[in-house]
Each structure stands twice: as structure tokens, then as C-alpha cells.
Design goal:
The complex is a heterodimer of chains A (about 300) and B (about 425).
Chain A (H helix, E strand, L loop, with lengths): L1 H8 L3 H33 L2 E2 L9 E2 L3 H8 L1 H33 L3 H12 L6 H12 L5 H8 L14 H26 L3 H9 L4 H31 L1 H8 L10 H9 L5 H29 L5
Antiparallel strand pairs in A: 1-2
Helix pairs in contact in A: 2-13, 3-13, 4-8, 4-10, 4-12, 5-8, 6-11, 8-10, 8-11, 9-10, 10-13, 12-13
Chain B lengths: L2 H21 L11 E7 L7 H16 L3 E7 L2 H13 L6 E5 L3 H6 L12 H8 L4 H5 L2 E2 L2 E2 L1 E7 L1 E6 H6 L11 H14 L3 E5 L9 H9 L17 H15 L8 H9 L3 E7 L3 H8 L5 E5 L13 E7 L4 H14 L2 H11 L16 H6 L3 H8 L13 H17 L4 H13 L5
Parallel strand pairs in B: 1-2, 1-3, 8-9
Antiparallel strand pairs in B: 3-11, 4-5, 6-11, 7-9, 7-10
Classes of the chains: A mainly alpha (about 300), B alpha/beta (about 425).
Chain lengths: ~300, ~425
């Protein structure tokens, strides 16, 4: 290693300029090959009709793929649903975990760990397994949940079959799994708050609620904004496996979202044109959203030190 | 894999594609050297009976043909074509594929399925076709050439629970034959018992469109013009069929359950009637044995119009490009569509026998059929079977999805059926090859 460093310091200035690039080359090449090249190629392929077969020639179709996607009635329905997913997931992915993180922080060490472990468990269950179990639990006739509702004297709820309810069922299931993750992040951020700030507030006679409102929440703001960003950008994606296993986007397209429908129409038949056009639409749409959100985060984040 | 080998691979596969027509002339008549072929099969991916029976068939074939080794590859029916497509793109061309009928056109125009007439000597082909049901054989024919042999296929069967029929004051020996009778029976059931009247497998993400096509056709409607260029599923006859389903649903006779739930409800003895492929028979029998009297009838018809069922299921298709492998693939195909194989397929998995003469032959299915009357409606319908049509062009799947989305909206969504079907047809027509 030191040999290399010594020889590197000897060569003339011209070669010295090249050296950093040489060190960076593996990273740049990998990024280029696996990220940027496919990205640019997706733009190109979105104007072709092709099914990836060596026997078939890619056919240039202009904006046809985009027109097909925008003409899909389900596309607009799913866009609408995506907004519902994000809005519905936010309380479960941010608000509830925030409350849990702050509340459990003051518990004795042992019970705090037990409590958080319980909340964390859903996260490590494979989504497809969880979905299969939920399907049994929520079955309108034999499911445990509806048995319970039945004994209370109410009619069975068609959790996954009623177009009005199904999307909320999927949101709750997705959120149920997310709570653990968000709680973990928020607990860590909460534990990172400098205790001397809290102590100072207490000495000034602040109540418990005042400490939370005026010290903890402002200091947790950047984490909350980060989780909000994640929910907006990825929330609908997290529900994919539940949609796939439990409803397949139905009933009547009520649970489909933008990710699911684009996968359904593009990837399930390996139509590279459809898929690429879909990917480009998502890339541009969510890219714009992410840009705005990052600007907001920079503006509203508050840092302790 | 680096870029260079990738390019070389692509070039090589292109080379093979161009060379294939020339090679096909010299397909050998026997397999006299060791060869391994791949066999893509969706029963292998299923749990239970289908997988076991298929593995047994493969083992039997290998024992009879010591030179040929068969690599079984399992994938779910919905994913099988995508899997085949990906493997061809990666230059691993499958040899024999169990292709769902709706993907048959695509496998001919895009996946390079080989017409049997193009490499099997005519006398040998004729000898193998002898005894095959003509309606069954027609299913694998496109433009006059045989690209596939029906393998696991079935017809729509109206299963019914005779105990529930009795409880509702209906005669279980006279099952409903028309849709109007089905409606009356279903309403009697929902009124007098706690069971569901009618369940079907027409709609749902994994249902495909085969059963829907049968219903539309029974009203003398269709999904596509004869020259396969124009979609016609919004024409009056088709809309009338959709409106009939809508009326069944609105009246409470027809309960909308997803595919799995419908199957489980019927098997649990909590539904009066269930229209679905005969392939679920094994599952239903398991649930019914010792608990209730499960019976079956043919698919309902519209008034006095003839009943026109079409098949579900799959055909075996050969994709091999190498002459020796092609020969080996044909040997496998011959075995899998032989009397012996059909006995196993019918008895152990629950499909129809492509060779109807084994039904009465005690050496094959003779005794079994006598003990299992559920197969009868399925056999009756084989005589009048019509092919499940597959949409043309690279967007065939999207077209199918749009049609089924439109129909689902028309039946359960509360809108005007004619409008929903028209809208679906207009958007889907734009995706048809021009």
C-alpha cells in the first residue's frame, strides 16, 4: 500500500490528474452500467414495441406507448387510489409511531424493550406470508375477525371484497407492517436528543407535555419530514405484495395503485415498451415530487447542533 | 456476464433463429444419442396432486426412453409465458411448454412454436392423431397447422350441492339447464337456506377470459371477428349475455366471491351452485366426501339457443430449434398425449381425456368413470367443444385485461352494461394489430 502511495507521488503532473479518476473508475463504471445506462435506455425503449425476444425486431412506435397508458381508464383510477394510499398511510407511518416512540421513551428499560419488540415483529414477517394469514383472518364467512364481529351482533364485513372498504383494508395492513420501522427510526432520533436540553426545560418548570411540544417535537422535525417523504414516495409501493396476494387490484380496480397497474400492464407480459414508458412516467412524476419535498425539508428542518 | 459474451450470446441466438428453418428438414426419426430437454409445466408448480402426477409421468417417460433426460421446470400458469419469454431472451430456449390456450397465438407468432406438420413425417403424425377427439385436436390448430396438442384441458361444469337443492325444495335430479332456471333455483336457495345461490369463476385476477368467452358464445356472441382483426365483445349479443349476468347479480342470485373464496365456499358445502372448470373437481370432491352430495351438470344455456362451451387449459407446444432436441421433444409430446398419460391426467388431476376411447376401455378409465359420474357433463361437452380464442398481436394480454375489466364493471359496477363494454372495446381495439 505504501509502495503504491509513493509511486503515485512521483509521476509528472499530467498523470497525477488521471490518478483520482482511476480510483473512481470502478464506482463510476458500476453506476453507469447499472443505473445510468438502463435509465437512458428505458427512455429509448419507451418509444418501441418489443417483447425482449431475440426473434422479434423492436418496432418504433413513437408516442404510442404513452398514449396507450394515458388512455387506460384504470390509469386515472389508480392515480387517484395512489393519493388515497399515501394520505391513508401517513397517520400509520408517521403519527402513530411518533406517539409510540415518545410514549415508550419514558418507560422503564425492560418494559420499553418488550413493548418495542412487539411493535417491531410485523416488520420481519415476510409480506406474502402475512398477506396469506390476513386473508384467512379477514374471510367474510370463516375468518376470526368476522366471527368476532358476528358475536357482537353485526353483519360480516367484506374487508377485501367490498370496493369501498378494500383499499382501507390494504392501507391498514401495509401500515401495520410500517409502524415497526417508523417507530424504530423515531425512537432512535428521540434517544439522540441531548438530555441536557430536557433537563434545562424541566428546571424551568416545564410540564411533561410542554417538554414534548417545545423540545422533543421540534428536534424530531427532520426525522418526521424524512418519514413523510418516504411515505409519499414509497408508500403505495409498500402495499404491492398485499395487493398482489389479496386482491389483485380488485374488486373493480378499487385497490390498484399506480405501481401495481403499470406492473400489471407492462411487466406481466414483458412488453418492454409499456414497461419503459410506465417507468419513465413514474420517474418523472416522482422525481418532480421528490425535488419539491427535498426543498421543503431543507427549508423546515431544524438541527440541534 | 460481461458485455462481450452478452453480445455474442445475442448474435448466436439470432444465428440459430435464422438457421432453424434450414435445420428442420433434417429432424432424425429416432433419438440415438443422449439428449436433455426442458419441459415447462404449470402443474409442477402446483401443490398436491398435479405436481405428483406430472413427476410420475416424466419418470415413466424417462424409463421408456433411456436416451432422453427431461428437466421439469415449474411456473404458475399466469407467469409461465413470461418465464418462457425471459428464458428465450436469455437464449435458453425451452423445448416443450405447457402453454395456456390464450397464449397460443403469441407463442406461434412470437415465441417460435413449431408446427408439427413441419418436421414430423405425415404417416407418423397421422398414426398419433388416430383416436384423438377431433374437437380436442382443433384447439391447437392455428391457420390450418397443428402447433399444440391439447394437454390439460377442461370444460365449464355447473357443480351443485344436492343436499342444498333438497333443502330449498328443488329436485336434485333435474339440475337447471338454462340461465333462467339457474336464476330461479339460486333465488329459491337464498330464500330457503343460508347458502349462496350461485358462484362462478368467470371474474377475478387469475380467472382469465375463457369462461366469459363461453357465456358470450352461448348467446351467439363472440369476442373477435372471424378474420381476427375486429373486436366484437360490445355487440348486442355479447352485451345481452353480460346484462344477464348483471341481472343475476342484482337479483341476489349470484354472489361475487374471488376465485379462491368461491372454490372454498363450494367445497365447504355453503353454496348451491358453482360454475367453474372441471379441473377443480378434485378439490371439491375432497371437501364433499362424507359431508354432502356433490353433483355436476353441463354449462347453462340461453333459452333455446344451443349451449356452446369452450375449453380452459393448456396445450403442449414445441419450441426446440435443434433437430435432435426437437425429435426428443416430439417423443415427450407423444408420450404425454398417449392413452396411458391421459388416464393419469383425467384420473389424478381432473382434466378431460383428449382420447375419448379410453373412457370405456377397462384397461384405462373404464372402471374409474363408472365410479365417478362427475366426469359425465365434462365428457358430454367435449363433443360440442369450441376453441378458446386467443387475441392476436403483442398486446394480447392487455386486450384480454381490458375486456375483462369492462365486463366486471358492467356486471358488478352498477353502470350501463352496453356503455361499459363499448368503452372497453374501443380502447382495446386500438391495441389490435393493424
Amino acid at each position: 500500500m505504501s509502495d503504491l502511495a509513493m509511486t503515485a507521488s512521483v509521476p509528472p503532473p499530467r498523470r497525477r490528474h488521471l490518478l483520482p479518476w482511476l480510483y473512481l473508475a470502478p464506482a463510476i463504471l458500476t453506476l453507469g452500467l447499472w443505473i445510468y445506462w438502463p435509465l437512458i435506455d428505458a427512455f429509448r425503449l419507451s418509444f418501441y414495441e418489443w417483447n425482449m425476444l431475440p426473434t422479434a425486431e423492436p418496432k418504433f412506435v413513437g408516442w404510442q406507448n404513452y398514449e396507450n397508458i394515458f388512455a387506460l381508464q384504470k390509469f386515472w383510477q389508480s392515480l387517484n387510489n395512489t393519493v388515497i394510499y399515501v394520505v391513508g398511510l401517513w397517520p400509520l407511518a408517521v403519527l402513530l409511531p411518533l406517539a409510540i416512540a415518545i410514549y415508550t421513551h419514558d418507560l422503564p428499560r425492560r418494559s420499553r424493550n418488550v413493548y418495542r419488540a412487539i411493535i417491531f415483529v410485523p416488520l420481519i414477517i415476510a409480506p406474502v406470508v402475512a398477506a396469506a394469514v390476513w386473508r384467512w383472518l379477514l374471510d367474510p364467512r370463516y375468518g376470526l375477525v368476522n366471527e368476532g364481529i358476528g358475536t357482537l351482533g353485526y353483519r360480516a364485513v367484506r374487508f377485501l371484497q367490498d370496493p369501498k372498504i378494500a383499499i382501507w383494508t390494504i392501507i391498514v395492513l401495509t401500515g401495520w407492517k410500517l409502524i415497526g420501522f417508523s417507530t424504530l427510526i423515531l425512537s432512535a432520533a428521540n434517544a439522540n436528543i441531548n438530555p441536557s436540553l430536557i433537563e434545562a426545560a424541566r428546571m424551568d418548570g416545564a410540564t411533561r407535555w410542554a417538554v414534548i411540544r417545545d423540545v422533543r417535537l421540534p428536534l424530531l422535525r427532520s426525522t418526521v419530514l424524512f418519514l413523510t417523504l418516504m411515505t409519499i414516495l414509497l408508500g403505495a409501493q409498500w402495499s404491492f405484495s398485499y395487493i398482489q396476494v389479496l386482491t389483485g387490484g380488485g374488486p373493480l380496480g378499487a385497490t390498484t395503485n399506480i405501481f401495481y397497474i403499470l406492473w400489471d400492464f407492462g411487466f406481466s407480459s414483458l412488453s418492454v415498451g409499456w414497461s419503459s414508458a410506465a417507468a419513465v412516467i413514474l420517474f418523472l412524476g416522482f422525481g418532480l415530487l421528490a425535488f419539491i419535498l427535498f426543498r421543503l425539508i431543507d427549508r423546515y428542518s431544524f438541527h440541534d447542533n | 456476464m460481461n458485455r462481450k459474451t452478452f453480445l455474442l450470446g445475442t448474435l448466436a441466438s439470432l444465428g440459430v433463429a435464422f438457421a432453424a428453418p434450414a435445420l428442420s428438414q433434417s429432424t432424425p426419426r429416432t433419438v440415438d444419442q443422449k439428449v436433455t430437454i426442458s419441459y415447462y409445466n404449470y402443474n409442477l408448480a402446483s401443490a398436491g396432486n398435479g405436481a405428483d402426477a406430472t413427476k410420475r409421468l416424466i419418470a415413466q417417460f424417462e424409463a421408456a426412453n433411456p436416451n432422453i433426460k427431461v428437466d421439469g421446470v415449474g411456473a404458475a400458469p399466469n407467469d409461465l409465458t413470461a418465464r418462457v419469454q425471459a428464458d428465450i431472451a436469455a437464449n435458453r430456449v425451452p423445448d416443450v411448454v405447457q402453454m395456456v390456450f390464450s397464449d397460443l397465438d403469441f407463442s406461434v407468432t412470437n415465441l417460435g412454436a413449431v408446427a408439427l406438420e413441419s418436421f414430423v413425417p405425415p404417416d407418423e403424425l397421422a398414426a398419433h392423431f388416430d383416436g384423438i377427439s377431433p374437437n380436442g385436436r382443433k384447439l391447437g390448430v392455428i391457420d390450418g397447422k397443428t402447433y399444440g396438442l391439447a394437454y390439460t384441458f377442461s370444460t365449464p361444469v355447473l357443480f351443485y350441492n344436492a343436499d342444498i337443492f333438497k333443502a330449498a325444495g328443488l329436485d336434485p335430479d333435474k339440475p337447471p339447464k338454462t340461465w333462467a332456471e339457474v336464476k330461479a333455483a339460486a333465488l329459491a336457495i337464498t330464500k330457503k337456506t343460508k347458502a349462496d345461490g350461485l358462484l362462478t369463476g368467470i371474474f377475478g385476477p387469475s380467472a382469465g377470459d375463457w369462461l366469459f368467452q363461453g357465456v358470450v358464445r352461448s348467446n351467439n356472441g363472440g369476442v373477435m371477428s372471424a378474420d381476427r382483426r375486429k373486436l366484437v365483445f360490445a355487440e348486442p349479443a355479447a352485451v345481452e349475455a353480460v346484462a344477464m349476468l348483471r341481472d343475476l347479480y342484482d337479483s341476489g342470485a349470484y354472489t361475487n366471491l374471488d376465485v379462491t373464496a368461491a372454490m372454498e365456499t363450494m367445497a365447504a358445502g355453503k353454496a348451491g351452485m358453482y360454475l367453474q372448470t372441471s379441473a377443480v373437481q378434485g378439490f371439491l370432491v375432497k371437501g364433499a366426501t362424507g359431508k354432502f352430495d356433490l353433483r355436476a351438470s353441463t354449462m347453462p344455456r340461453f333459452g333455446d339457443k344451443p349451449q356452446r362451451p369452450n375449453n380452459s387449459g393448456s396445450a403442449l407446444v414445441i419450441l426446440s430449434r435443434d433437430p435432435l432436441k426437437r425429435r426428443a421433444a416430439w417423443e415427450l409430446m407423444k408420450f404425454m398425449t398417449s392413452k396411458e398419460a391421459y388416464t393419469v391426467i383425467t384420473r389424478d388431476i381432473g382434466y378431460l381425456p383428449l382420447r375419448t376411447d379410453i373412457v370405456n376401455d377397462p384397461q384405462y378409465l373404464g372402471d374409474w368413470v363408472k365410479k365417478h359420474p362427475l366426469l359425465q357433463p365434462n365428457l358430454e361437452q367435449l363433443a360440442i367443444l369450441e376453441p378458446w380464442e386467443s387475441f392476436p398481436g403483442p398486446n394480447y394480454r392487455q386486450i384480454q385485461k381490458m375486456m375483462m375489466d369492462g365486463a366486471e364493471q358492467a356486471v358488478f359496477g352498477g353502470g350501463d352494461p352496453a356503455k361499459a363494454m363499448k368503452q372497453a372495446q374501443d380502447s382495446a381495439q386500438a391495441l389490435m394489430p393493424k
